[in-house]
Amino acid sequence: MECKECGNEVESLVAVKIGGKKVRVCEDCADRAREEDEVAEAATGVMKGMMEYKGK
After folding, report:
1. Distance separating alpha carbons of residues 33 and 36, to the nearest angstrom
2. C-alpha dist (Å) from residue 14 to 1, 6, 33
């Protein structure tokens, strides 16, 4: 099987949401996508705090 993100041949693929779409990628790319998502969520939280956002 081939990873859709990096193009490497791997034994198993993992389903992960990247950019709102579910994509089957290798473990390395899945970990990278999770880390990027965590950083994006943290940045959004900081921006909401600076803007004193009171919504959900």
Report:
1. 5
2. 11, 13, 11
Reduce the DSSP state of residue 14 to 3 states and report it: strand
Helix (H, G, I), strand (E, B) or coil at 52: coil
In our burial notation (b when 16+ CB lie closer than 10 A, e otherwise), range 27-44 reads eebbebbeeeeeeeeeee
- The alpha carbon of residue 47 and the mean position of all alpha carbons in its chain are separated, in whole angstroms, by 19
Model confidence, pTM: 0.70
Question: Which residues face 39 on adjacent strands?
Answer: none
pLDDT level of residue 55 (50, 70, 90 thresholds): confident
